[in-house]
Amino acid sequence: MSAINKGAELLQVRGLGRRFGGLQAVDDLDLTVHAGEIVGVIGPNGAGKSTTFNLIAGALGPSSGTLAFAGTRMNGLPPHRVARLGIARTFQHNRPFAGMTMAENVMVGMHLRMKNALWRQVFLVDESARAEAEAASHAGELLEFVGLGDAKNADVSTLSFGQGRLLEIARCLAARPRLVLLDEPAAGLTPAECDRLCEIIRGIAAKGIAVLLIEHDMRLVMSTVERIVVLNFGRKIAEGTPEQIRSDAAVAAAYLGDLGGLTRA
Ligand SMILES: Nc1ncnc2c1ncn2[C@@H]1O[C@H](COP(=O)(O)OP(=O)(O)O)[C@@H](O)[C@H]1O
Ligand SMILES: [Mg+2]
Protein backbone atom coordinates (compact mmCIF):
# COMPACT_ATOMS: atom_id res chain seq x y z
CA MET A 1 0.00 0.00 0.00
CA SER A 2 2.53 2.54 1.15
CA ALA A 3 4.80 1.65 -1.77
CA ILE A 4 2.41 3.49 -4.08
CA ASN A 5 2.75 7.25 -4.23
CA LYS A 6 -0.51 9.07 -3.75
CA GLY A 7 -1.29 10.48 -7.15
CA ALA A 8 -0.31 7.41 -9.18
CA GLU A 9 -3.15 6.19 -11.40
CA LEU A 10 -4.52 3.05 -9.77
CA LEU A 11 -7.79 2.33 -11.57
CA GLN A 12 -8.11 3.22 -15.23
CA VAL A 13 -11.49 2.77 -16.89
CA ARG A 14 -11.63 3.78 -20.54
CA GLY A 15 -14.62 3.84 -22.88
CA LEU A 16 -16.46 1.35 -20.66
CA GLY A 17 -19.85 0.18 -21.89
CA ARG A 18 -22.40 -2.42 -20.82
CA ARG A 19 -25.65 -3.26 -22.55
CA PHE A 20 -28.56 -5.25 -21.13
CA GLY A 21 -30.59 -6.17 -24.20
CA GLY A 22 -31.65 -2.82 -25.67
CA LEU A 23 -30.58 -0.84 -22.61
CA GLN A 24 -27.18 0.86 -22.53
CA ALA A 25 -26.68 0.78 -18.74
CA VAL A 26 -23.10 2.14 -18.91
CA ASP A 27 -22.05 4.19 -21.91
CA ASP A 28 -18.50 5.16 -22.95
CA LEU A 29 -17.36 5.80 -19.38
CA ASP A 30 -13.88 7.10 -18.55
CA LEU A 31 -12.97 6.97 -14.87
CA THR A 32 -9.64 7.25 -13.08
CA VAL A 33 -8.93 6.70 -9.41
CA HIS A 34 -5.54 7.60 -7.98
CA ALA A 35 -3.87 5.82 -5.09
CA GLY A 36 -5.30 6.91 -1.75
CA GLU A 37 -7.96 9.14 -3.33
CA ILE A 38 -11.65 9.30 -2.37
CA VAL A 39 -13.89 9.62 -5.43
CA GLY A 40 -17.68 9.88 -5.29
CA VAL A 41 -20.01 8.43 -7.92
CA ILE A 42 -23.46 10.00 -7.88
CA GLY A 43 -26.47 10.02 -10.18
CA PRO A 44 -30.20 9.31 -10.15
CA ASN A 45 -31.54 5.77 -9.67
CA GLY A 46 -30.84 3.64 -12.72
CA ALA A 47 -27.91 5.86 -13.82
CA GLY A 48 -25.57 2.85 -14.02
CA LYS A 49 -23.63 3.28 -10.76
CA SER A 50 -23.96 -0.27 -9.42
CA THR A 51 -23.41 -1.70 -12.90
CA THR A 52 -20.15 0.26 -13.07
CA PHE A 53 -19.08 -1.33 -9.77
CA ASN A 54 -20.04 -4.78 -11.05
CA LEU A 55 -17.91 -4.19 -14.14
CA ILE A 56 -14.92 -3.02 -12.10
CA ALA A 57 -15.26 -5.95 -9.68
CA GLY A 58 -15.51 -8.50 -12.50
CA ALA A 59 -19.04 -9.57 -11.55
CA LEU A 60 -20.13 -8.42 -15.03
CA GLY A 61 -18.18 -8.41 -18.28
CA PRO A 62 -18.02 -5.18 -20.29
CA SER A 63 -19.68 -4.89 -23.70
CA SER A 64 -16.94 -2.43 -24.68
CA GLY A 65 -13.98 -0.55 -23.28
CA THR A 66 -11.01 -1.41 -21.08
CA LEU A 67 -10.33 -1.74 -17.37
CA ALA A 68 -6.88 -1.68 -15.80
CA PHE A 69 -5.69 -1.75 -12.21
CA ALA A 70 -2.15 -0.78 -11.22
CA GLY A 71 -1.13 -1.35 -14.82
CA THR A 72 -2.75 -4.80 -15.13
CA ARG A 73 -5.50 -5.21 -17.69
CA MET A 74 -8.60 -6.56 -15.95
CA ASN A 75 -10.97 -7.24 -18.85
CA GLY A 76 -12.44 -10.72 -18.52
CA LEU A 77 -10.97 -11.43 -15.08
CA PRO A 78 -13.40 -13.20 -12.71
CA PRO A 79 -14.21 -11.53 -9.34
CA HIS A 80 -11.72 -13.57 -7.29
CA ARG A 81 -8.86 -12.56 -9.59
CA VAL A 82 -9.92 -8.91 -9.42
CA ALA A 83 -10.03 -9.23 -5.61
CA ARG A 84 -6.50 -10.64 -5.63
CA LEU A 85 -5.29 -7.60 -7.58
CA GLY A 86 -6.38 -5.47 -4.63
CA ILE A 87 -9.97 -4.39 -5.26
CA ALA A 88 -12.59 -5.09 -2.58
CA ARG A 89 -16.23 -4.12 -2.53
CA THR A 90 -19.33 -3.88 -0.41
CA PHE A 91 -22.75 -4.57 -1.83
CA GLN A 92 -25.78 -2.32 -1.87
CA HIS A 93 -27.47 -4.84 0.46
CA ASN A 94 -25.96 -6.53 3.50
CA ARG A 95 -24.81 -10.09 2.93
CA PRO A 96 -23.49 -11.46 6.23
CA PHE A 97 -22.71 -15.17 6.56
CA ALA A 98 -25.38 -16.51 8.92
CA GLY A 99 -24.46 -18.65 11.93
CA MET A 100 -21.03 -17.07 12.31
CA THR A 101 -19.65 -14.41 14.62
CA MET A 102 -18.73 -10.93 13.45
CA ALA A 103 -15.03 -11.79 13.63
CA GLU A 104 -15.57 -14.95 11.55
CA ASN A 105 -17.44 -12.91 8.97
CA VAL A 106 -14.47 -10.58 8.68
CA MET A 107 -12.11 -13.56 8.40
CA VAL A 108 -14.11 -14.78 5.41
CA GLY A 109 -12.92 -11.60 3.68
CA MET A 110 -9.32 -12.62 4.32
CA HIS A 111 -9.71 -16.14 3.11
CA LEU A 112 -11.15 -15.03 -0.20
CA ARG A 113 -7.69 -13.67 -0.78
CA MET A 114 -5.89 -16.96 -0.22
CA LYS A 115 -4.70 -18.72 -3.32
CA ASN A 116 -6.82 -21.68 -4.42
CA ALA A 117 -8.50 -21.83 -1.03
CA LEU A 118 -12.19 -22.09 -0.46
CA TRP A 119 -12.78 -20.21 2.76
CA ARG A 120 -14.27 -23.34 4.33
CA GLN A 121 -10.97 -25.15 4.17
CA VAL A 122 -9.52 -22.71 6.61
CA PHE A 123 -11.95 -23.87 9.25
CA LEU A 124 -11.62 -27.58 8.42
CA VAL A 125 -7.95 -27.96 7.63
CA ASP A 126 -5.51 -27.83 10.53
CA GLU A 127 -3.78 -24.57 9.64
CA SER A 128 -1.05 -23.39 11.94
CA ALA A 129 -2.50 -21.99 15.14
CA ARG A 130 -0.37 -18.92 14.67
CA ALA A 131 -1.85 -18.04 11.27
CA GLU A 132 -5.31 -18.40 12.75
CA ALA A 133 -4.46 -16.24 15.71
CA GLU A 134 -3.06 -13.58 13.39
CA ALA A 135 -6.21 -13.68 11.29
CA ALA A 136 -8.38 -13.37 14.39
CA SER A 137 -6.30 -10.49 15.66
CA HIS A 138 -6.50 -8.68 12.31
CA ALA A 139 -10.27 -9.24 12.26
CA GLY A 140 -10.48 -7.75 15.75
CA GLU A 141 -8.49 -4.68 14.66
CA LEU A 142 -10.76 -4.12 11.67
CA LEU A 143 -13.87 -4.44 13.82
CA GLU A 144 -12.34 -1.88 16.22
CA PHE A 145 -11.62 0.37 13.25
CA VAL A 146 -15.29 0.41 12.21
CA GLY A 147 -16.47 0.74 15.82
CA LEU A 148 -17.69 -2.84 16.32
CA GLY A 149 -14.84 -4.05 18.53
CA ASP A 150 -17.11 -4.81 21.47
CA ALA A 151 -19.31 -7.08 19.36
CA LYS A 152 -16.64 -9.19 17.69
CA ASN A 153 -17.82 -12.47 19.26
CA ALA A 154 -21.50 -11.72 18.76
CA ASP A 155 -23.44 -13.82 16.25
CA VAL A 156 -24.23 -11.82 13.10
CA SER A 157 -27.95 -12.50 13.65
CA THR A 158 -27.82 -10.04 16.58
CA LEU A 159 -26.65 -7.14 14.37
CA SER A 160 -28.63 -4.00 13.81
CA PHE A 161 -28.94 -2.89 10.21
CA GLY A 162 -26.36 -0.14 10.68
CA GLN A 163 -23.89 -2.52 12.34
CA GLY A 164 -24.35 -4.83 9.36
CA ARG A 165 -23.26 -2.02 7.01
CA LEU A 166 -20.14 -1.41 9.08
CA LEU A 167 -19.41 -5.15 9.22
CA GLU A 168 -19.49 -5.16 5.40
CA ILE A 169 -16.79 -2.49 5.39
CA ALA A 170 -14.61 -4.40 7.88
CA ARG A 171 -15.01 -7.56 5.80
CA CYS A 172 -13.97 -5.84 2.61
CA LEU A 173 -10.90 -4.33 4.30
CA ALA A 174 -9.84 -7.79 5.50
CA ALA A 175 -8.51 -8.60 2.05
CA ARG A 176 -5.97 -5.74 2.45
CA PRO A 177 -7.20 -4.00 -0.70
CA ARG A 178 -5.68 -0.98 -2.42
CA LEU A 179 -9.10 0.17 -3.65
CA VAL A 180 -12.48 -0.31 -2.01
CA LEU A 181 -15.79 0.10 -3.81
CA LEU A 182 -18.55 1.16 -1.41
CA ASP A 183 -22.08 0.96 -2.83
CA GLU A 184 -24.43 3.25 -0.86
CA PRO A 185 -22.87 2.54 2.53
CA ALA A 186 -25.00 5.21 4.24
CA ALA A 187 -28.36 3.84 3.06
CA GLY A 188 -30.51 3.15 6.13
CA LEU A 189 -28.00 4.51 8.64
CA THR A 190 -28.96 6.80 11.51
CA PRO A 191 -27.39 10.31 11.48
CA ALA A 192 -24.94 9.22 14.22
CA GLU A 193 -23.96 6.12 12.22
CA CYS A 194 -23.54 8.35 9.16
CA ASP A 195 -21.10 10.56 11.04
CA ARG A 196 -19.11 7.50 12.06
CA LEU A 197 -19.15 6.32 8.44
CA CYS A 198 -17.63 9.66 7.36
CA GLU A 199 -14.78 9.11 9.79
CA ILE A 200 -14.31 5.52 8.66
CA ILE A 201 -14.11 6.53 5.00
CA ARG A 202 -11.54 9.21 5.80
CA GLY A 203 -9.68 6.66 7.92
CA ILE A 204 -9.57 4.20 5.01
CA ALA A 205 -8.02 6.85 2.76
CA ALA A 206 -5.59 7.79 5.54
CA LYS A 207 -4.32 4.19 5.37
CA GLY A 208 -3.45 4.87 1.73
CA ILE A 209 -6.41 2.86 0.39
CA ALA A 210 -8.37 4.50 -2.44
CA VAL A 211 -12.15 4.71 -2.07
CA LEU A 212 -14.76 4.78 -4.82
CA LEU A 213 -18.02 5.74 -3.16
CA ILE A 214 -21.52 5.45 -4.59
CA GLU A 215 -23.80 7.43 -2.34
CA HIS A 216 -27.13 9.24 -2.36
CA ASP A 217 -26.47 11.06 0.91
CA MET A 218 -25.07 14.32 -0.49
CA ARG A 219 -23.94 15.57 2.91
CA LEU A 220 -21.73 12.48 3.23
CA VAL A 221 -20.43 12.74 -0.34
CA MET A 222 -19.72 16.46 -0.22
CA SER A 223 -17.91 16.20 3.09
CA THR A 224 -15.70 13.19 2.32
CA VAL A 225 -14.73 13.01 -1.35
CA GLU A 226 -12.06 14.94 -3.26
CA ARG A 227 -13.68 14.44 -6.65
CA ILE A 228 -17.16 13.55 -7.90
CA VAL A 229 -18.22 11.75 -11.08
CA VAL A 230 -21.86 12.22 -12.04
CA LEU A 231 -23.66 9.57 -14.10
CA ASN A 232 -27.00 9.89 -15.83
CA PHE A 233 -28.46 7.26 -18.18
CA GLY A 234 -25.12 5.46 -18.12
CA ARG A 235 -23.08 8.47 -19.25
CA LYS A 236 -20.73 10.71 -17.32
CA ILE A 237 -22.36 14.13 -17.41
CA ALA A 238 -20.00 15.95 -15.04
CA GLU A 239 -16.81 15.52 -13.06
CA GLY A 240 -15.13 17.85 -10.59
CA THR A 241 -14.66 18.93 -7.01
CA PRO A 242 -17.72 18.98 -4.71
CA GLU A 243 -17.87 22.77 -5.20
CA GLN A 244 -17.83 22.46 -9.01
CA ILE A 245 -20.51 19.76 -8.98
CA ARG A 246 -22.77 21.74 -6.67
CA SER A 247 -22.90 24.60 -9.19
CA ASP A 248 -23.09 22.46 -12.37
CA ALA A 249 -26.23 23.10 -14.42
CA ALA A 250 -26.30 19.66 -16.09
CA VAL A 251 -26.12 18.00 -12.70
CA ALA A 252 -28.94 20.14 -11.36
CA ALA A 253 -31.07 19.21 -14.40
CA ALA A 254 -30.40 15.49 -13.92
CA TYR A 255 -31.48 15.80 -10.31
CA LEU A 256 -34.62 17.87 -11.03
CA GLY A 257 -36.78 15.76 -8.77
CA ASP A 258 -34.06 15.58 -6.18
CA LEU A 259 -32.58 19.06 -6.35
CA GLY A 260 -33.24 19.69 -2.68
CA GLY A 261 -30.96 16.82 -1.77
CA LEU A 262 -28.14 18.27 -3.84
CA THR A 263 -28.37 21.89 -2.75
CA ARG A 264 -29.09 21.20 0.90
CA ALA A 265 -25.76 19.46 1.25
N1 LIG B 1 -28.60 -7.59 -14.57
C1 LIG B 1 -29.34 -6.68 -15.19
N2 LIG B 1 -30.16 -7.03 -16.22
C2 LIG B 1 -30.89 -6.09 -16.88
N3 LIG B 1 -30.88 -4.78 -16.59
C3 LIG B 1 -30.10 -4.37 -15.57
C4 LIG B 1 -29.30 -5.29 -14.83
N4 LIG B 1 -28.61 -4.59 -13.88
C5 LIG B 1 -28.98 -3.31 -14.02
N5 LIG B 1 -29.87 -3.17 -15.04
C6 LIG B 1 -30.45 -1.91 -15.52
O1 LIG B 1 -29.38 -1.04 -15.81
C7 LIG B 1 -29.69 0.29 -15.41
C8 LIG B 1 -28.64 0.76 -14.44
O2 LIG B 1 -28.81 0.06 -13.23
P1 LIG B 1 -27.86 0.27 -11.98
O3 LIG B 1 -26.46 0.19 -12.41
O4 LIG B 1 -28.30 -0.68 -10.91
O5 LIG B 1 -28.21 1.78 -11.57
P2 LIG B 1 -27.90 2.60 -10.24
O6 LIG B 1 -27.02 1.77 -9.36
O7 LIG B 1 -27.25 3.85 -10.71
O8 LIG B 1 -29.23 2.89 -9.60
C9 LIG B 1 -31.09 0.25 -14.84
O9 LIG B 1 -31.99 0.62 -15.85
C10 LIG B 1 -31.26 -1.20 -14.44
O10 LIG B 1 -32.62 -1.58 -14.48
MG1 LIG C 1 -27.28 1.04 -7.39
What does this protein look like?
The structure is a single chain. This protein has a single domain, classed as 3-Layer(aba) Sandwich (Rossmann fold). It has 265 residues and is an alpha/beta fold. It is built from eleven helices and ten strands. The strands form two sheets. Strands 6-7-8-3-9-10 form a six-stranded mixed β-sheet, with helices on both faces. A four-stranded antiparallel β-sheet has the order 2-1-4-5, with helices on one face. Helix 7 links the parallel strand 7 and strand 8. The chain binds adenosine-5'-diphosphate and magnesium ion. Magnesium ion binds next to helix 1.
Compact overview of the structure:
With 265 residues, this protein is α/β, with parallel strands linked by helices.
CATH class annotation: Alpha Beta
Low-confidence stretches: 1-5
Based on helices, strands and strand pairing, what is the structural class?
A: alpha/beta
Whole-number radius of gyration? 18 Å
Q: What topology, given as strand order, has the largest sheet?
A: 6-7-8-3-9-10
Which superfamily, in CATH terms, is the homologous superfamily? P-loop containing nucleotide triphosphate hydrolases
How many strands, which pairing sense, and closed or not: the largest β-sheet?
A: 6 strands, mixed
| Bound molecule kinds, no repeats | adenosine-5'-diphosphate, magnesium ion
Q: Give the strand tally.
A: 10
The CATH topology assignment is: Rossmann fold
